[in-house]
Amino acid sequence: MFFFLFLLFSFSTLSLSHPFSPLDNYLLDCGSTAPLTTAATSSLSADHRLFSGDLARTPNSPFHSPSLRASVSLRNDNPFPGLSPIYHTARVFTSPASYTFSLKDKGPHIVRFHFHAFKSPQLDLGRAQFRVLVDDYVVLTNFTRLNCTGQNPKVLEFLVPVEDEKIVIVFVPNRDSKLAFVNAIEVISAPNDLVPETAQFIGSSGNLVNFDGLNKQALEVVHRVNVGGPKVTPFNDSLWRTWVPDDGLLRSSFGSERLVFGGRIKYHDGGASREVAPDNVYNSARLIRSENDSVTNVNITWAFPILGGYKYLIRLHFCDIASISLNMLYFNVFVNGYLAYEDLDLSYITRSLASPFYADFVVDYGDGNVGGDLSVGIGPSKNSITHAVDGILNGVEVMKINNSHSSFDGEDCSTIVLKSWSKGNYSGLLLTLAAAVCIVLSLSMVIRRKMIESRESLSWSRLPVNSSDGDDHVKEEEGVNK
Ligand SMILES: *[C@@H]1O[C@H](CO)[C@@H](O)[C@H](O)[C@H]1NC(C)=O
Ligand SMILES: *[C@@H]1O[C@H](CO)[C@@H](O)[C@H](O)[C@H]1NC(C)=O
Ligand SMILES: *[C@@H]1O[C@H](CO)[C@@H](O)[C@H](O)[C@H]1NC(C)=O
Ligand SMILES: *[C@@H]1O[C@H](CO)[C@@H](O)[C@H](O)[C@H]1NC(C)=O
Ligand SMILES: *[C@@H]1O[C@H](CO)[C@@H](O)[C@H](O)[C@H]1NC(C)=O
Ligand SMILES: *[C@@H]1O[C@H](CO)[C@@H](O)[C@H](O)[C@H]1NC(C)=O
Description:
The protein has 482 residues and is α+β, with helices and mostly antiparallel strands. It is 14% helix and 34% strand. The protein is built from six helices and 28 strands. Strands 1, 2, 3, 8, 11, 14, 15, 16, 17, 18, 22, 25 and 28 form a 13-stranded mixed β-sheet that branches. It has a five-stranded antiparallel β-sheet with strand order 4-7-12-9-10, with helices on one face. Helix 4 runs parallel beside helix 6. The longest helix has 25 residues, at 431-455. The chain is elongated and about 75 Å long. The chain binds 2-acetamido-2-deoxy-beta-D-glucopyranose (6 copies). One 2-acetamido-2-deoxy-beta-D-glucopyranose binds next to loops.
């Protein structure tokens, strides 16, 4: 039933703007009971995807949500006008809890977390402090650093290589706060070619060597930028990504010339696919143009703030939407001031104009680097010609690569994170919190009973399956504390 409806919806919504239909496509509105039946009862995200409540499930549900013992659902009674319904509820955890998603597909999966730390009369989610694991990767150890109170929800996006038939996501509250939450989770299979096996590693002296096994690393999206164009929303992206404009990241006074192309982007086999980046990214760019009898000798430079201690994947998107004919555009590409591509000749690579191409580079910001800016630049090369376009860039993605502790946020590996809960003196919940939790819990029970009554005809299950039978870690952790 679930799948039938699910497929029905994916086809009706995907066929128009999204030709890619992922085998796994979990869109969970956490803390909500909304079943995935019609647009009227489900939670619609701003990009018109249907999210189903994590409390509304069938007996053979393909995912297990946390046991009710360890979690409550919370509703925002005063959401900001215009805020997507997926942020109106949250699932709140007072001890470690996990979601298990069974997968039909192996390979890379996109995992997105949506956080909006709203305040309700019972709880202030802004007080939450917790860590998050995805399989054995530590994806977040300090929730506070996201700074997601106020109006703006925060979305974290990871690309995780999956070799198992499931993904397990664990929320571990800090011992002090005993409070973790999430508003929505997406688990979506990504096309296999999204992350290639090899990229070019730029060494400390600027030498290029192969970086192998890229597709075995997990990645966190840090910057995703549509150069020279407007914001691209999930509605207009083949994998429901968000691309922001580059204005705040542009570092040189030159480069104010933007171009928006009205023609068709010609995707070719072997080049970038629409899943690598959508038309809306390739049809805008910034450029260097030589209008005079000499080549304009300038660079356009962008700077991307990053944290030190990690390697980063930099994906540069190019599409010659500016030249008037083939074989007129030659330019250099710089990453961190080093020559990453000399005399890039897009005509030679793509054999046609308006045809997309992307290049992947890896840089190391480890060892003693506290952070700073990662720079990307373009400039004319020795083959650049006058009265022509002499440099172009359409998009940039910067992704953090997990460190040797399989973490994106510090040196603690997943085992240490899980132990952090069971160790130490367990003093129990604060009275106020416990009381609040009781109120919310009883409220949500009443609501659920109502939902179940109205759901009976659809043969939804009465009670969610306890997560602990699907997850040994958490069962063990809970056992320790009882
Ligand atoms: C978490 O991040 C915030 C903001 O960046 C910082 O002030 C705080 O010290 C961090 N806490 C820990 C435990 O690292
Ligand atoms: C957090 O966000 C608020 C408003 O969005 C901003 O004023 C503040 O400087 C941010 N704090 C940090 C530590 O980034
Ligand atoms: C999608 O893209 C089109 C054309 O670029 C634009 O007009 C429209 O506003 C975009 N829609 C959303 C929801 O971003
Ligand atoms: C082209 O030449 C004109 C006149 O000499 C000058 O003002 C202009 O800045 C030059 N343009 C570029 C892009 O160098
Ligand atoms: C462009 O940037 C590269 C690398 O930082 C530098 O070597 C070159 O001198 C720059 N060219 C101009 C014209 O600034
Ligand atoms: C990322 O994690 C994987 C799996 O734990 C590990 O094999 C790999 O070496 C890590 N990457 C880096 C750059 O340390």
